[in-house]
Design goal:
Helices cover 36% and strands 14% of the residues. The two termini are 14 Å apart. Helix 1 runs parallel beside helix 2, helix 3 (98-108) packs antiparallel against helix 8 and helix 6 crosses helix 7 (162-168). It has helices spanning 31-40, 57-67, 98-108, 111-124, 130-135, 146-155, 162-168, 185-194, 211-224, 241-251, and strands at 16-17, 45-48, 70-81, 84-91, 198-201, 228-233, 254-258. The chain has a seven-stranded mixed β-sheet. It binds adenosine monophosphate and manganese (II) ion (3 copies). One manganese (II) ion binds next to loops.
Length: 289
């Protein structure tokens, strides 16, 4: 695949997916299988954006080359801002960037202990051995996530789906939730920029922010060098697309889109299933190099 020959301006929108996960973070499929599935469902331009981890990019890139997909090296960084967890996607990052690698290693660092504390908290409500249970679903020992606990709680019959688990467990105020401080917004944007990438606010509808704080987040993100906002995402209801499209226009952000695919049975959007975005937006791929 020769990057120089890709005309990013002319990509057909429906085949662009700039947010998904492999089992290198909390997705279910191996990186190459993620790419194959995306290709089979009509995706022609794919970013793999594992949480706080770059280890899946080489395998995904090589599978994309053999299938003729445009591959975008990405990452989704966990950030704590105003006591809320915010996810920042980096697109077209250089996986060899020492700054990005060191920043992500630091961000991943607390996950193990957090997971042990989550298991202790679950044991208080009678759910035993959740740490060992979650580990069965972990593809990368550095990246144990609430999603892995969610899968184990489904396995033992606590709820029917991981979404149903998250309504009763693992979220603020519920059993199994352990507050955690992730990277700062400034650091996350800086690491992405140091790696030559574009920083994008992921699934903005998922953050519990007042209108004032939301405005402050956008302003601060922009001042730090952030350039994009996800508008069409599997993490939003289609009814939310126009709201965040307007935010993108108001703040001059490029609009991004992605399924946030985690696995075939994870209840999230499937590859190739996202609608076109609202009119009057500038797609983030117009900023690709
Ligand atoms: P962590 O990074 O360990 O805090 O885990 C966050 C991950 O848990 C997200 O990236 C999702 O994959 C998953 N998750 C969070 N909230 C929900 C939810 N309401 N339903 C399903 N999965 C969720
Ligand atoms: Mn996830
Ligand atoms: Mn996310
Ligand atoms: Mn994601």
């Amino acid at each position: 695949m020769s990057k120089a020959r890709i005309e990013w301006q002319h990509l057909e929108e429906l085949g662009v997916d700039l947010h998904c996960h492999s089992n290198v973070s909390d997705g279910v499929l191996a990186p190459a299988d993620v790419v194959s599935r995306a290709a089979a469902r009509g995706v022609h331009t794919l970013a793999l954006t594992d949480h706080d981890e770059l280890a899946g990019l080489a395998a995904a890139q090589s599978q994309a080359e053999s299938l003729g997909l445009n591959f975008i090296a990405g990452v989704e960084i966990s950030v704590t801002w105003a006591h809320e967890t915010i996810h920042i996607v980096g697109l077209q990052v250089d996986p060899d960037s020492p700054e990005l690698q060191a920043g992500l290693a630091h961000t991943r660092g607390g996950r193990q202990r957090r997971a042990e504390e989550m298991a202790l908290d679950l044991a208080r409500v009678g759910i035993d051995d959740a740490y060992a249970g979650a580990l069965k679903y972990v593809g990368n020992p550095d990246l144990i996530s609430r999603a892995h606990f969610g899968r184990y709680l489904v396995e033992i019959g606590i709820a029917e789906s991981t979404q149903a688990v998250f309504e009763r467990y693992l979220t603020p105020g519920k059993p199994g939730y352990i507050p955690h401080t992730w990277a700062s917004l400034r650091d996350a944007v800086q690491w992405i920029q140091a790696a030559g990438g574009l920083a994008v606010i992921a699934h903005p509808a998922r953050y519990r922010l007042s209108p004032t704080l939301r405005w402050a987040l956008y302003e601060e993100f922009k001042a730090l060098g952030g350039v994009g906002l996800e508008v069409v995402t599997g993490s939003h209801h289609p009814g939310e697309y126009p709201i965040y499209a307007q935010h993108a226009r108001d703040f001059g952000f490029f609009a991004s889109r992605g399924s946030d695919f985690h696995g075939p049975t994870e209840g999230c959007a499937e590859f190739g299933s996202l609608a076109a975005g609202p009119a009057g937006l500038t797609p983030i791929w117009h900023a690709f190099h």
